[in-house]
Amino acid sequence: MVSEILKNVAHQLKYPTSEFNIFDDVNDTLRFRGSIFFHSSLAAPWGMPLSSILMPRFHIALEVGFYVGARTSNINVASIDIVMIPGGDMHWIADDIGSERVPSEQAGDACALGMPLFQKGEITNKIMCGIIEYDEAIEHPILSILPSIIKLSNI
């Protein structure tokens, strides 16, 4: 399976005008499915750490950028960029690197009570966050070799 993906990648690199799309091929092979768990308009300052899970996560800057940090990496995410945390590692998202971070469980509980956090003042950011589910019966060696944070721009 992995050798087939690598052959297709080599083909795309050799013939860049071919109709092969690596993202579609990887998605079809690994049977990825995305689910949105958070979509909000936020007023700065805001920030949340997210605990580790077994599934990859992603964050999208819908309006205005933000920062994501995992392990020793911090990434500035511009508007319309997508960030993926392939290993589902513990990480944080915030409007600024120095912003105070409220545990995501606390922020979720406040939303459930109808008193969402990060809503006071002028709205500065719109974000969408989700997880990527996949068929766990299929081995996914690609996920294990990816860096802790991947940023996709201009998609």
Folded structure, characterized:
The chain is of the alpha+beta class and 155 residues long. The protein folds into two domains: 30 residues, no CATH class; 111 residues, Jelly Rolls. It is built from four helices and nine strands. Strand 4 and strand 5 form a beta hairpin. It starts with a helix and ends with a strand.
Concise account of the structure shown:
With 155 residues, the protein is α+β, with helices and mostly antiparallel strands. It has four helices and nine strands; from the N terminus they run ααβββββββαβαβ. α1 runs antiparallel to α2.
User: What is the subunit arrangement here?
Assistant: single chain
The count of strands amounts to 9
Assigned CATH architecture of the largest domain: Sandwich
Radius of gyration: 17 Å
Low-pLDDT residue spans: none
Q: CATH-wise, what's the superfamily of the largest domain?
A: Jelly Rolls
Taken from the alpha-carbon principal axes, the silhouette is: globular
User: Which structural class is indicated by helix and strand composition?
Assistant: alpha+beta
The number of helical elements comes to 4
- Helicity range: 10-25%
Order of helices and strands: HHEEEEEEEHEHE
Count of domains? 2
Q: Please state roughly what percent of the residues sit in beta strands, choosing from under 5%, 5-15%, 15-25%, 25-35%, 35-45% or over 45%.
A: 25-35%
CATH class of the largest domain: Mainly Beta
Task: Supply the key terms.
155 residues; alpha+beta; Jelly Rolls; five-stranded antiparallel beta sheet; four-stranded antiparallel beta sheet; 9 strands; 35% strand
